[in-house]
Write a structure and sequence with these properties.
The complex is a heterotrimer of chains A (about 250), B (about 260) and C (about 200).
Chain A: E1 11-12, E2 15-16, E3 28-32, E4 40-46, E5 49-60, E6 73-80, H1 96-112, E7 121-131, H2 136-150, E8 160-167, E9 170-173, H3 177-182, E10 185-192, E11 197-201, E12 204-205, H4 209-237, E13 244-245
Parallel strand pairs in A: 6-7
Antiparallel strand pairs in A: 1-2, 3-4, 4-5, 5-7, 8-9, 8-10, 10-11, 10-12
Helix pairs in contact in A: 2-4
Chain B: H1 3-17, E1 33-37, E2 45-51, E3 54-65, E4 76-83, H2 98-113, E5 123-125, E6 128-140, H3 145-159, E7 161-162, E8 164-166, E9 169-171, E10 177-178, E11 186-193, E12 196-199, H4 203-208, E13 211-217, E14 222-228, H5 235-258
Parallel strand pairs in B: 4-6
Antiparallel strand pairs in B: 1-2, 2-3, 3-6, 5-6, 7-10, 8-9, 11-12, 11-13, 13-14
Chain C: E1 2-5, E2 10-12, E3 21-24, E4 27-30, E5 34-37, E6 42-45, E7 57-66, E8 69-73, E9 79-83, E10 97-106, E11 110-119, E12 123-126, H1 132-136, H2 141-150, E13 153-156, E14 161-165, H3 169-182, H4 188-198
Parallel strand pairs in C: 9-11
Antiparallel strand pairs in C: 1-5, 2-4, 3-4, 5-6, 7-8, 7-10, 8-9, 10-11, 12-14, 13-14
Helix pairs in contact in C: 2-3, 2-4, 3-4
Classes of the chains: A alpha+beta (about 250), B alpha+beta (about 260), C alpha+beta (about 200).
């Protein structure tokens, strides 16, 4: 979190800097299968975030001796392009932040992918942030789910992710970058919508038990929109199937 | 190269021995080129090029740094490239491979030798000048990164707006002036397969190739050249390639100009 | 009725045995992006790797020759082996293309092949395995149409590799990729017929 010097007013006349209500998420749109070579892919625009997710697999595990004969291994790489932020140029390559994010995202999908259906194989998930504006890991997970589904990977559910946080006494959904930097608490969450199971939860800041409770409720409520956007993307990609209702 | 690649490569070679290409193109014909600029607004400039199925995104960031010691009155350009693992089943994660580094350096060379970016215009004040970072992101691979990347880099630079600098502060959100681009250089890449020379090789054609040549030039001069792979070219072949590259220059320049907003 | 389903969508409010679906807490859910046909009680996966079945005819490439066994590349995440028999008429070499049948599948990822024959010349096109049924067509009508129009010899592997030799290979490849892109669209047979006619 940034220092409180030069802290901008995040709430003006009861609305947020971009005019949103507290429970409102930014507009989002997902396109399934934009890439030709990848086995599955998805492109998401969520607020000013522009993120590409791609999947290769199940494919032969490399190196072979690290494969698991009973199930698939999942590898995940989240990175931000050097030109993705409004501020300075970033060096390419993984840094500690992106390595941690890659790990927690991998754990979301290890949970929902039916690994034993593809023994001995490897499933690679790549999340590339082309332009970032707060909530990139949530948008990345949301797109990666669609990419996995578009690759035909067996999953028990289609997880989505969205963040919630606290600005003063208000709990607000889906922070943009400025809110992210100056908020009192930011909590990305990934949910498996079938049972509303929480597969990713990270939090730092300062929240009471009641606030955490309310925050989780808000995520599940707003999550319906995100889940719908994912399904719409997949259905749109297969529009015009003979006799299929959408 | 896996077993299937070997089959496709021999097939491509067989075809070329008959003077044919797998996508039915002429030997010296480019695949369809599509360029879109300004897609990454956080970047000071950006362009995405589709050359057939090869897709490269170039993003430009300008940062205020200290000028280099030996050139105290001008700024800098740095070109980097990543062959993203999502672009091809054969790309691996990890630090840039020699392939990626050659790609970045060849794209850089043509633009730099062509004096395209006016480095003096990047000078701001004593101890401060802009560094222009061009990052090439390969999103889908099907051969000829050099041309897709060269066109993307040049287009992204043409699209670039320099951030406002006022009262010793950089105001990123405002870009009142375009980057001063004095020249436009166009890349043209050839491959030699089964003694035939083709323009704009696909992924399979590159695998079958014994030699490769990238020529970047402007209207008047050849600005950079790079011979790649293990084989060779003869003097008369090189002369022909230069002629073809000059021939293609206006067309490529036109496509880039049209894509500017 | 056919509906598009995504992983986690409810197929039935009771436990049922449906391909590409799973049961939990007394309900059946889809595990893939697919089309659910409630009259046929099946979820047809729209995408995904090849699901090998015994007796599938496949196209592969010999990738390694070992004593007594060939390792065959089927463009599949598992391993495929062709046992070298004492009485084999032909000995295969690395890089050669074969057409073979699946004799057995061990675990979900080791395939044992049999009845291999050598395919000479030609090239291989890779098509997503889930689109192969569309490439073949009802009673092989689609693939025959393509072979007729191109004059090529075409052998389709259920594993997604297709061997094409002779005739208008470029056109054959073009049509196959077109079917792969439009496999989910209605009226595909007519579209392809019109496309091939336009190329005459």
């Amino acid at each position: 979190m940034a220092s409180s010097l030069n802290k901008p007013e995040l709430i003006v006349n009861g609305k947020r800097t971009d005019g949103r209500d507290f429970d409102e998420i930014r507009p989002l749109k997902i396109v399934a299968s934009p890439l030709k070579n990848a086995d599955g892919s998805a492109y998401i625009e969520w607020g000013n975030n522009k993120i590409l997710a791609a999947v290769y697999g199940p494919r032969e595990a490399t190196p072979r001796h690290l494969s698991d004969p009973s199930k698939a291994i999942i590898k995940c790489r989240y990175t931000m392009a050097p030109f993705s932020s409004l501020s300075e140029h970033n060096r390419t390559g993984p840094n500690r932040r992106s390595i941690e994010i890659s790990k927690v995202i991998k754990e979301v999908f290890e949970n929902v992918v039916m690994l034993t259906d593809f023994p001995g194989s490897q499933i690679d998930i790549f999340i590339e942030v082309l332009q970032g504006d707060g909530g990139t890991r949530a948008a990345g997970i949301t797109a990666a789910s669609v990419a996995l589904a578009s690759a035909g990977i067996h999953m028990r559910d289609l997880p989505y992710a969205v963040s919630v946080g606290r600005i003063g006494e208000h709990l607000a959904m889906d922070f943009n970058m400025i809110e992210d930097n100056y908020s009192d608490s930011d909590i990305p969450m990934a949910i498996a919508p079938r049972n509303n199971e929480i597969l990713l939860l990270q939090m730092d800041g300062d929240m009471s038990r009641e606030q955490m409770s309310k925050a989780m409720e808000m995520v599940i409520k707003a999550g319906e929109q995100v889940s719908t956007a994912q399904k719409d993307a997949l259905r749109e990609a297969y529009a015009n199937k003979a006799g299929a209702k959408q | 190269m896996d077993a299937i690649d070997t089959v496709k490569t021999s097939y491509v070679r067989e075809l070329l021995m008959k003077g044919e290409r797998e996508d039915s193109r002429q030997l010296l014909e480019f695949r369809p080129i599509k360029i879109e600029t300004g897609i990454i607004k956080n970047a000071e400039g950006s362009a995405m090029v589709d050359l057939g199925a090869t897709r490269v995104l170039a993003g430009v960031k300008t940062d205020l740094n200290e000028p280099m010691e030996d050139t105290p009155n001008q700024g800098n350009m740095v070109v980097s490239a990543e062959l993203l693992p999502l672009a091809s089943a054969s790309y691996e994660t990890g630090p840039p491979s020699p392939e990626a580094i050659e790609f970045a350096r060849v794209v850089d060379r043509g633009i730099r030798a062509g004096n395209c970016v006016n480095l003096e215009s990047l000078f701001v004040e004593e101890g401060k000048a802009w560094t222009v970072y061009v990052d090439l992101y390969v999103l889908n691979f099907n051969g000829n990164l050099f041309d897709a990347g060269g066109l993307a880099a040049m287009s992204a630079l043409l699209d670039t707006g320099v951030p406002k600098y006022e009262d010793s502060k950089v105001i990123r959100e405002e870009r009142p002036n375009k980057l001063k681009v004095d020249n436009i250089v166009t890349p043209t890449t050839f491959a030699k397969v089964a003694d035939k020379i083709i323009l704009d090789p696909t992924g399979n054609e590159e695998k079958a190739a014994s030699a490769r040549m990238t020529i970047a030039l402007d209207k008047e001069s050849v600005r950079s050249m790079q011979k790649g792979l293990g084989g060779g070219f003869y003097k008369n072949e090189v002369e022909e390639l230069i002629d073809v590259a000059f021939n293609k220059h206006e067309e490529l320049k036109g496509i880039m100009k049209k894509a500017q907003k | 009725m056919r509906t598009i389903v995504t992983p986690g969508d409810v197929i039935a409010q009771s436990p049922t045995r449906v391909r590409n679906a799973y049961v939990q807490n007394g309900r059946t859910y889809s595990k893939v992006l697919g089309i659910y046909d409630d009259s046929a009680q099946e979820v047809i996966a729209l995408e995904g790797t090849w699901d090998p079945r015994i007796e599938d005819s496949v196209i592969g490439i010999i990738s390694e020759v070992k004593p007594k066994v060939y390792i065959v590349d089927l463009s599949f995440f598992g391993r495929a082996l062709l046992i070298a028999g004492k009485y084999d008429k032909v000995e295969f070499q690395e890089g050669q293309i074969i057409n073979a049948l699946i004799k057995d599948i061990e675990g979900k990822s080791t395939i044992i092949l049999t009845d291999a024959r050598l395919l000479e010349g030609g090239t291989i096109v890779s098509i997503k395995p889930k689109k192969i049924p569309r490439v073949i067509g009802k009673k092989s009508t689609m693939i025959r149409q393509i072979a007729d129009a191109t004059g090529s010899r075409i052998i389709v592997g259920m594993n997604g590799l297709i061997w094409i030799q002779g005739g208008n290979v470029a056109l054959a490849e073009e049509v196959l990729l077109k079917i792969e892109r439009e496999a989910h669209m209605s009226g595909l047979t007519e579209t392809i017929k019109a496309f091939l006619d336009s190329k005459k």
